[in-house]
Amino acid sequence: MKQKIISTIFILIGMISNAQEVKVTSGKVQRFANFKSQYVDARNVDVWLPDNYSADEKYAVLYMHDGQMLFDPNMTWNKQAWEVDEIAGKLIAEGKTQKFIVVGIWNNGQKRHIEYYPQRAFKILTKKEKEFISDVLQKRNKITETFNPISDNYLKFIIKELKPFIDKTFSTKKDKNNTFISGSSMGGLISMYAICEYPNVFGAAACLSTHWTGIYQLDSNPIPETFFMYLKKKLPNRKNHRIYFDHGDKTLDSLYPTLQKKVDSILESKGYTKNNWVTKYFPGEDHSEKAWHDRFAIPLEFLIKN
Fold first, then answer.
1. Helix (H, G, I), strand (E, B), or coil: what is residue 184?
2. pTM recorded for the entire structure
3. What is the mean pLDDT of residues 186-198?
4. What is the CATH number for 234?
C-alpha cells in the first residue's frame, strides 16, 4: 500500500510538471520537467506508460536517449518522431513483447555530443588526434569549446539518479534482464557504451544507425579504431546479454556499412551468435526518425522478449 501511495504522488507531480502535453496514440506520457542531477545539467524526462498501466503489475523498462524526439512529431524540430508509443503499444497488445515502460531522456542540445561520446574510447586518442576532432566538431557547430566527453557522468546520472527514481516511482522489474537501453546515431554509441560499462544494470541494448565515425567523415578519421579497441576489451558476457545493431546506406548512414562489418567481426570473435546479437542492414534507408520508426519494432521484439 505504501508503495502505491508513493507511486501515485510521484505520478501526480509528473502530471503537474507536464506543462506541454505530449500527444500519443497509445498509453500516456508523464513528463518530469527539469530533472535535477549532480552529474549533468537538468533536463526533461518523459515516461511512457502503456494502456491500462497498473501498480499491481511489474513492467520492464526501456531507457532511450534523445527523449524529445520519441513520441509527438508536432513537438520536434523536424516534425518527425520515433512514435514509440504507437509501436510499443501495438507490440504489447499483440503479445509480441512483455509489458514495459519507456523512459525518454531528453538530450542537452549543445552538450549532446560530449554526453553521448564514449569517454574511455576517447582517452585512447593521442593529443593531436583529440585536437583534430575538436576542430572538426567546432567547424560543424557541434561544440563551442575544446571537445572533452562527459559520458561517464551522463551514465552515472542514469544509473545512480534516474533509475532509482523510476524504480521508486513506477512499478518496475529492477533486474538487468528487464532493463534495456536504446538510441540512434550518437544515441547508439552511448547505448553501446552503457551496456559495456554497466553490464550488471542493462541486459540488452539496441543501437540504431550507430555513429561509429564519431565525427562526420571516414577519411583521416582515427575514431572508429578506438571504438573497435574498446569493444574488444569491454563487450559484456554473451551468455546473459543481447545487442542489436542496424544501419541504412543513405545520408549519414552511408558512412556506416564498412564500419559495422568490422564491429560485427569483433562480436563474432567474442562468440556472439544469432541468439544474442543481431545486425540488420536496410538498403535505401536514411538517417532519420522516420527511418528508425519504420524498423523499431524489430529491435523491440529482440530486446523485450515475452
1. strand
2. 0.92
3. 98
4. 3.40.50.1820
